[in-house]
Amino acid sequence: MINALVEITMKMVPKMLSPLVKDWAPKAFIISFKLETDPSIVISRARNALEIYQHQVVVANILESIQSFVVIVTKDSETKLLLSEEEVEKGMVIEEKIVDNVQSRHTAFICDKN
């Protein structure tokens, strides 16, 4: 076996949420995601993102429970989505609950715009 050195170079890229909301799609329903390792700051960081970028929804979660728990954060609400043990046993994934929740919010957003 050959021992080879692998080097990865990473560069900072500009945040795209601001131009997306302000310039490219100002009337769109926009969702962002916030993943944290510290449960004590995830909601405040999600709320901060909503305030800064002025979009509609942040799906916030903790790395430790990434596959079973999220909080859907909006300007006016926090909705906790949790997989039960039965749902896990049946093979359900948290993304199913996220999609259902966000889909209903999107539908309400569209209805409010018309």
Topology:
Elements: H1 17-24, E1 31-36, H2 42-53, E2 57-62, E3 69-73, E4 78-82, H3 85-89, H4 94-113
Parallel strand pairs: 1-2
Antiparallel strand pairs: 2-3, 3-4
Keywords: Ligase
Organism: Heterocephalus glaber (Naked mole rat)
Protein name: Phosphopantothenate--cysteine ligase isoform X3
Can you tell me about this structure?
The chain has 114 residues and is of the alpha+beta class. It has helices at residues 17-24, 42-53, 85-89, 94-113; strands at residues 31-36, 57-62, 69-73, 78-82. The chain has one domain (17-113): CoaB-like (Rossmann fold, 3-Layer(aba) Sandwich). The protein is built from 4 helices and 4 strands. A hairpin with a 4-residue loop joins strand 3 (69-73) and strand 4 (78-82).
Question: What are the defining features of this structure?
Answer:
Rossmann fold; four-stranded mixed β-sheet; globular; ligase activity; Phosphopantothenate--cysteine ligase isoform X3
What is the CATH top level name? Alpha Beta
Structure summary, number of beta strands: 4
The SSE order reads: HEHEEEHH
Class by SSE composition? alpha+beta
| Number of domains as seen in the coordinates | 1
- Considering DSSP H and I runs of 4 or more, what fraction of the residues is helical? 25-40%
Radius of gyration: 18 Å
The N- and C-terminal alpha carbons lie at a distance of 64 Å
CATH-derived topology: Rossmann fold
Q: Which architecture name does CATH use?
A: 3-Layer(aba) Sandwich
User: What is the CATH homologous superfamily assignment?
Assistant: CoaB-like
Tally of contiguous helical segments: 4
* Contiguous uncertain segments of 5+ residues: none
Oligomer: single chain
Please state the average pLDDT score: 94
Strand order of the largest sheet: 1-2-3-4
What does the overall shape look like? globular
Estimate what percentage of residues fall within beta strands. Answer: 15-25%
Organism: Heterocephalus glaber
GO molecular function, one term: ligase activity
InterPro entries: CoaB-like_sf (IPR035929)
Keywords: Ligase
